[in-house]
Write a structure and sequence with these properties.
mainly alpha, 6 helices, 65% helix
Amino acid sequence: MTEEQTTETTEEQDLGHSVPPEPEQEQEQAEEDTFPREYVQKLRDENAKFRQRAQRSDELAHRLHTALVAADGRLADPTDLEFTEEHLEDAESLSEAIGELLRSKPHLAARRPRGDVGQGASGGSGGNVDLAGLLRAGAS
């Protein structure tokens, strides 16, 4: 063997071990690992439908929670109580949570006037209005 042949053989051996695969081979391998476009699109559409359903379900759960708190009637604003899924499943935990919130923040309680607040129709006669009689009643 001549010196040139030895050098070429050595270079081929060195290159053979460190030469990356040809681009055509990589492309073929990548194509084998992927799915058809129609299948991927179908999966994406299906996933989008499930995400929309989940979002709608979350919205309805929040509305139900607000309605349950409003039905309790102890809070002025039913959105003051934070949403927790546990409240939807257990009415007792909802009641306890409202009670705990009112103990820590009593200003959130619903205020309802009770008794005679001086408004609306009273049990008096529906006939003539006597201004002098009203003044006498207010003076005493």
